[in-house]
Amino acid sequence: MATKHILIVPGDGIGQEVTAEGKKILDRIAAKFGHTFTYDDALVGHAAIEATGDPLPAVTLEKMHKADAVLFGAVGHPKYDNDPSAKVRPEQGLLKMRKELGLYANLRPIKLFDELLEASSIKPEILRGADILFFRELTGDIYFGEKGRKNNGDTAFDIAEYSRFEVERIARKAFEAARTRRKKLCSVDKANVIETSRLWREVIQKIAPEYPDVEVEHQFVDATAMLLIKDPKRFDVVVTANLFGDILTDEASQIAGSMGMLASASIGDGTCVYEPIHGSAHDITGKGVANPLASILSAALLLDISFGMKAESEAVIEAVDKVLKAGFRTGDIADAKTPKDKILGTAAMGDQVLAQL
Ligand code: GGG
Fold it and tell me: Where is this site: Important for catalysis (predicted)?
């Protein structure tokens, strides 16, 4: 029995709706396993800009540092999409949080529930057995380098930077994870063109002999994009840079059936943050139709990684599995054969998972 403090940071759009379901599941786990979870909440993203002018207010950051773990939703707002010159943006809150908390490794498991095999647009025989763990580097690359305009604003630049230290620390995490799985590591770069990728490859090659039990391959990012669809089973652990990881995991979400199924854990040296990989999805915000399973599965990662509660985490994953086996779906994972009465909204899907706990 443990006492833990969890900060709930729903953010924007459907982040609000799905995070409420993740918290519901954490509450049930605490009751079922005799733990005490205390909660606080905080603002980030557009919601924080509206309230304070700052996408990551100091009070939010302070609460994050003090929490045992953070359950995060999403950031974003369409108004900024049509205003490329906006100086303050919701995403700055997310990036600053990663930098300030030192969240350098973003783990994105591509977990395919068997029940969703038929729903995917990829053939079941190609998908069956696919199980990939992505390590996306999270505090470097083009996201954090110098950016700006020159030539009277007619030329824009973003500088991509990686140090040996940054590559090595995430590579070691990925090697260690591969050791606990099928012992295969694929490092993804663009070393035929990009200098940061050449350093990336050099570092992986240098430390690989320390992990002789792990089979290492290097792939270019363009080839990886193709192979993920052609033969997803060939991958076990994949480690890659921030931008490549952002793009490849959205693609890989189709292996799991939907962006609404993918959870993530951002880990570093302090408080870890757990969130769906999807964004704020304002096109469906307020309609109560968003898939809460990515948030619920993020809560499962939180239990396992931050609290070491393996049985509790597995109970959540099993509950999700049972709900899917019973035929319940949100709209994003339903197919033509799904009966209308099995297509649920956000809260009803959360309730079904709860009922299995
Ligand atoms: N829950 C993930 C989220 O809010 N994503 C929106 C976003 O701005 N993503 C950029 C990134 O992950 O680097």
Answer: 143, 190
Quote the number of domains for the chain.
2
| Span 179-233, pLDDT tens digits | 999 999 999 999 999 999 999 999 999 999 999 999 999 999 999 999 999 999 9
pTM of full prediction above 0.80: yes
Residue 111 falls within a domain, yes or no? Answer: no
Domain boundary among 207, 236, 256: 256
What are phi and psi for residue 154, nearest 5 degrees?
-85, -10
What is the share, in percent, of the chain residues with pLDDT greater than 90? Answer: 94
Q: Is residue 78 part of a domain?
A: yes
Helices then strands, each counted (H, E), the chain: 13, 12
Shared domain for 207 and 281, answered yes or no, is no
The binding site consists of: 98, 108, 136, 222, 246, 250
Q: Which of 40, 114, 222, 335 is catalytic?
A: 222
Instruction: Specify whether 230 is located in the same domain as 293.
Output: no
CB of 275 shorter than 6 A to ligand 1: yes
